[in-house]
Amino acid sequence: MFLDLEKHLVFYGTYHIHPRNVAIHIMFVPVLMFTMMLWASNVALPVTASFVPPEYLNLSTLTSVIYAIGYVLMEPIAGGLLLPFVIGQSLAGTYCVQHYPGANKWAGIIQAGSWIAQFIGHGVWEKKAPALVDNLVQALFLAPLFVWIEVLFKFGYRPELRKRMEAQVKIKRAELDARGKKGAEVKKEL
């Protein structure tokens, strides 16, 4: 169930229909991932390994490995192409924390701006709350893979998957919109 790529893409895609909102996510999700990896690199792991420098034995490294393995298991080709980027963000984040004293502060500023941009995308163009409101863990884990697959779709990657996903997203979005209208009508009556 967890590795059902199509199901997860439909969930995430239901909240990301408008091209401008999708573009905002393609731009800012990788930035959010990088800044989160940077912050996670501040947390050392209580382990040692002779093949890894001690400064890289941190929560960022562990998180990047988990994300990379999950992405490869969900979608081997797209996940395999994304793997170096995910691991690279962890390594770059760790490097920044070690060599640039203001890295954490700048990551916070960039993080805030990136979240604001995404919430604007949802409020202005989608007119819907983001996916993380309904499933925080799924949205945070899936977002980088989803935006990567969105980019790959634009280059003709797995057209049959894209077609199936878009058909299911239309149905799910219509259901979501209908629930939203019913909720608005109930609020209006009160």
From TrEMBL:
Keywords: Membrane, Transmembrane, Transmembrane helix. The keyword Membrane applies. It comes from the Eukaryota. Pfam families: Mpo1-like (PF06127). Signal peptide: none annotated. The chain crosses the membrane at residues 21-45, 65-86, 106-125, 137-157. GO terms for biological process: sphingoid catabolic process. GO terms for cellular component: endoplasmic reticulum; membrane. The keyword Nucleotide-binding does not apply. PANTHER family: 2-HYDROXY-PALMITIC ACID DIOXYGENASE MPO1 (PTHR28026:SF9), DUF962 DOMAIN PROTEIN (AFU_ORTHOLOGUE AFUA_8G05310) (PTHR28026). This is Similar to Uncharacterized endoplasmic reticulum membrane protein YGL010W acc. no. P25338. It comes from Pyronema omphalodes (strain CBS 100304) (Pyronema confluens).
